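Problem statement: downstream parser choked on a complex file, so we are re-checking the raw output for the flavin mononucleotide run. The parser issue turned out to be on our end (a line-ending mismatch), but while we're here, posting the original submission so the record is complete.
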Amino acid sequence: MTIEQHKPIIIAMTGASGAPYALRLIQRLAKCEIQLHLLISDAARVVLDKESNFILSADLKTMAQEIADFLDIDVKYLTCWGNKDWMSPVASGSSDMQDMVVVPCSMGSLARIATGASSNLIERATDVMMKERKNLVLVPRETPLSEIHLGHMLALSKMGVRIIPAMPGFYHQPKSMDDLVDFMVDRIMDHIGVDDGGALRWGNTERKGE
Ligand SMILES: Cc1cc2nc3c(=O)[nH]c(=O)nc-3n(C[C@H](O)[C@H](O)[C@H](O)COP(=O)(O)O)c2cc1C
């Protein structure tokens, strides 16, 4: 399914548990033929290996091809950037990108985003989204949450950042881990305005095939 004229979307993966959410989001958005800018922290690489047995190369072009192959999507939709690639368009408010998702979002990245400590490209890109009043979605994952974590989330929410914690529901009676992952990805896609026709909604518990 093609979503016409959707602007490129920035997807950042940080080192919280939940790499499958990011992978599935990338897959569904690429299948909608949306250009994606991918930012992956060093800790996210470790989590990706641990959770999905997926070891990424350091070279950015190779990395994009590996992700495309892993997800069975066309590499032409993926552009990977390094953590210090300050010349990337995502580092500037002059870019035409309107949406960014940090999924999963670690408590470390959450804290740095909340305080504007732009020490890497992920944090710089989130800082840009906030200063430009664009759409920033964070998918934090930790449990239990400390007052520090909750305080950062409240501060960010007050600034208009969308906080979508990785908390899948069970009322759609998931049969598999994929069902749980898609539950979260459906909600993330709602908040970046992409409807691929596959989302489960209240009162509609039958997922359409791809
Ligand atoms: C397998 C694994 C799972 C982790 N899970 C979480 C988590 O769920 N939430 C979290 O905040 N940090 C988690 N961490 C710790 C972060 O990766 C660590 O704080 C890291 O410094 C975050 O860096 P980043 O924000 O630059 O990605 C996990 C680390 C590993 C290796």
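For whoever reads this later: The two ends are 9 Å apart (CA to CA).
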